[in-house]
Design brief:
The complex is a heterodimer of chains A (168) and B (542).
Chain A (H helix, E strand, L loop, with lengths): L5 H4 L13 E8 L2 E7 L2 H11 L6 E9 L9 E5 L7 E5 L6 E9 L5 E11 L13 E2 L9 E5 L5 H7 L3
Antiparallel strand pairs in A: 1-2, 2-5, 3-4, 3-6, 6-7
Chain B lengths: L3 E9 L13 H26 L6 E5 L1 H7 L2 H25 L6 H20 L5 H9 L3 E6 L12 H19 L5 E3 L11 H5 L4 E4 L1 H5 L13 E2 L5 E4 L2 H8 L18 H4 L2 H4 L32 H30 L4 E7 L10 H14 L4 E3 L2 H6 L4 E3 L23 H19 L5 H17 L3 H8 L3 H23 L5 H10 L17 E5 L8
Parallel strand pairs in B: 1-2, 1-8, 1-9, 2-3, 3-4, 4-5, 5-7, 6-10
Antiparallel strand pairs in B: 6-7
Helix pairs in contact in B: 1-3, 1-4, 1-13, 3-4, 12-13, 15-16, 15-18, 16-18, 16-19, 17-18
Classes of the chains: A mainly beta (168), B alpha/beta (542).
Chain lengths: 168, 542
């Protein structure tokens, strides 16, 4: 039928394992577990290794922060995990459902201080029980008056773009 | 006057499995089987009910990938071809079983089954979306959509991803079915906080969560799962009823496990000699299900199986429909008294259960609709949209992050077998967002390349790939699919950035990964650089 083979569609390429960038992302798995994955760029790694001194491998630390329920102020507490140099992800058991968490990846300097390399996003773990909050507020929306929106560019905000793309 | 409502929601989804590079692929067969065993039998039931004036309502969620396959001319032609093969096989089977009191009637049953499917398919010129649309226009079905490629939304991270998945789905649904959907099925019922803002902006009025998505909502919902709640962004959220789910799904107590029902795992593909059956297998010579199955479940875990007795199975389907209805009546009476207003029981199922896994599922649904319409007054069938129109005040609350998968949260889609995926998906999305934001206006060729990049990304995001990796069958296929789409994506963006787009290769990709021809890459623009603008009533974006 003359259809193209996979290899030519992929142009013989493969997916890289890493992207040579600094990145730490966390995802919620369940009420008591979050998944973290990260990557340190070659430049960052080399800088850390240089600072750590030639004969010692840097000692990496994942610092897991628990934040206030209303996200006010600094983190309430944290605990630490010790990934190996080759690790790039971790399932982190966390103490509380329905809590905000964030993670930092850093290393312990020769002087013994925690040096942050990567900050993660912040996520809230799911609840695993019925809510204690019993405030009741009721509303009756007008389901017939539902409005539809489309996004247009803020920086190129012109009625021309909108009119061109909206067809009555 | 009914004391309560039953909303049966059928969610129909298959990943985009279209392989022009193979003459026959096992994955395309998933789709063909679902057409013959589920969609056509169900559509025939619905049409017949309507023709007889039975008042019934069902909600049907049709995934955009499934709709795109139903609309694809190559797959339509291949389906006809596949079906012709089975029609021939049933003729051979009629000869082979002639005179056998047990099997000859069954061979005839399948002969009719496939011939009916072929006739039905031709009646709509191969476009089954027309059959769904027509039932929706008659008011029997409420058609809703889901994320474009059924992405597992809580793990997509970037909001632009979620926006593109949903906005494209809504536009595509409107283009095919003529009306924008009122509700959206969250793939795998997977919800995370804040997700509701995007359906709200797209004019979607409701979605459905797992039972504990609603039960653990905050503030605590006064009526549990038996009334929707309203999120602050104005989207209603219905919760899955656990009782109806158990009666149908449970492997122990569920109806589909009844010993009189047809045995799914005993297919003639495995019983008959290869020199006879081989040419009729798909792909040829490889033992995989034909759909022709002559035995009943008989006993669980027992190798010995007795021949299938269709009339006995039909009686059971009727009995089970009666039992289901009776339980709903009791449930509704109890809940209505406790709540002081009519409860709604939301019962969502995978469509592929009906007909494929549970052969008698469409019959059961047929009996259920008839019995509810004619044999009682306590329960009325309704769609979530119709329920909202009744105008009950809704309690404001935020659902709890959850899914209807194993263990109730995200683990089935995030574990050691598939977690490697997310680093690549998020990276690709970040690149897509950056490029889409940078290219507000562009030349034709770049526009095509960006559109194809969006297509490759959105295909890589199907929840099916991590699902298959966890389930453990066809894992290689799923891994390759994600990798292929991401590799093509990366090569496209490299070419775009280096201003070196290869039009010939781009054309080949457009032919192969060809779904959503109007997918607008601009849906990926950084949301901080865009602003929602209200659409004039009745408007649509080309």
């Amino acid at each position: 039928m003359g259809h193209t083979e996979i290899s030519s569609l992929n142009r013989g390429r493969s997916l890289p394992h890493f992207y040579d960038e600094d990145r730490l992302v966390i995802l919620p798995r369940d009420p008591r577990c979050i998944f973290a994955y990260w990557e340190l760029s070659t430049a960052t790694r080399e800088r850390v290794e240089k600072q750590a001194g030639g004969e010692h491998q840097p000692f990496y630390v994942l610092r897991v922060y628990q934040h206030a329920r209303n996200d006010a102020g600094n983190a309430e507490s944290y605990f630490e995990l010790h990934p190996g140099r080759e690790d790039a992800s971790w399932y982190i058991t966390v103490p509380e459902p329905d809590r905000l968490y964030s993670v930092e990846l850093g290393w312990i300097s020769p002087q013994g201080s925690f040096q942050v390399l990567l900050h993660s996003n912040k996520i809230r773990t799911p609840r695993d029980s019925i809510s204690e909050i019993i405030d009741e507020e009721w509303q009756l929306p007008d389901w017939k008056a539902q409005k539809l929106f489309r996004r247009i560019s803020l920086h190129h905000l012109s009625s021309a773009e909108f009119m061109r793309r909206v067809k009555k | 006057m009914a004391q309560g409502f039953l909303a049966i929601v059928l969610h129909a989804h298959l990943p985009y499995v279209r392989h022009p590079e193979h003459r026959r692929s096992l994955e395309e067969k998933w789709f063909f089987e679902a057409i013959t065993e589920c969609y056509i039998p169900l559509l025939m039931v619905f049409e017949q009910l309507h023709a007889e004036g039975i008042d019934y309502r069902l909600t049907f969620s049709l995934s955009p990938t499934l709709v795109a396959m139903l609309e694809d001319p190559l797959l339509q032609e291949r389906y006809r071809d596949y079906l012709r093969g089975l029609q021939e096989l049933t003729r051979l089977e009629k000869e082979r079983t002639a005179g056998d009191p047990d099997f000859a009637p069954l061979a005839e049953l399948y002969r009719k089954h496939f011939d009916d499917a072929a006739a039905y398919f031709d009646r709509f010129n191969g476009r089954l979306t027309g059959a769904f649309r027509s039932l929706a226009e008659k008011g029997c079905l409420e058609l809703i959509t889901t994320a474009s490629t059924h992405a597992y939304l809580p793990l997509l991270v970037q909001r632009e991803n979620i926006y593109a998945q949903l906005a494209n789905a809504v536009q595509y649904h409107q283009a095919i079915f003529g009306e924008p959907p009122r509700g959206i099925w969250l793939p795998e019922c997977a919800y995370d906080r804040g997700l509701e803002e995007i359906p709200a902006e797209l004019g979607l009025q409701y979605f459905i969560t797992a039972t504990h998505g609603l039960l653990y909502a905050s503030p605590r919902p006064k009526y549990g799962v038996y009334s929707p709640i309203l999120t602050k962004s104005g989207v209603a959220v219905f919760g899955r009823d656990p009782e109806t789910s158990k009666q149908v799904w449970s492997s122990q107590e569920g109806y589909p496990g009844d010993y009189d029902y047809r045995e799914f795992y005993r297919d003639i593909a495995y019983d008959l000699p290869l020199d006879y059956i081989g040419p009729h297998l798909h792909p040829p010579g490889m033992r995989s299900d034909t759909g022709i199955k002559y035995y009943r479940i008989t006993r669980e875990g027992l190798e010995y199986k007795e021949p299938y007795r269709p009339e006995k199975a039909r009686e059971k389907a009727a009995q089970h429909a009666g039992n289901f209805m009776f339980n709903r009546e009791q449930q509704v009476k109890y809940l209505a008294a406790a709540m002081g207003r009519p409860p709604i029981i939301v019962a969502p199922y995978d469509t592929e259960l009906f007909g494929h896994w549970w052969f008698e599922g469409p019959q059961w649904l047929d009996y259920l609709c008839r019995k509810i319409a004619c044999d009682q007054q306590h329960v009325k069938m309704i769609t979530p949209g119709e329920y909202l129109d009744l105008g009950y005040p809704l309690q404001i609350a935020t659902p709890n992050p959850s899914s209807w998968g194993d263990k109730g949260y995200h683990e089935f889609w995030l574990n050691g077998s598939n977690d490697w995926l997310y680093r690549h998906l998020h990276k690709a999305a970040a690149e897509m967002i950056a490029l889409a934001t940078a290219h507000t206006e562009t030349d034709k060729l770049t526009e095509r390349a960006l559109g194809q990049a969006a297509r490759e990304l959105i295909l890589a995001q199907s929840s099916d790939w991590p699902f298959i990796m966890t389930a453990g069958t066809m894992v290689e296929y799923a891994r390759n699919r994600v990798k292929n789409h991401l590799i093509r994506f990366r090569e496209l963006i490299r070419q775009i950035k280096e201003n070196a787009i290869d039009p010939h290769w781009l054309g080949e990709l457009e032919q192969t990964d060809n779904l959503f021809p109007h997918l607008d890459y601009r849906l990926y623009r950084n949301m901080e650089t865009t602003v929602p603008v209200e659409m004039p009533a009745g408007a649509s974006i080309p």
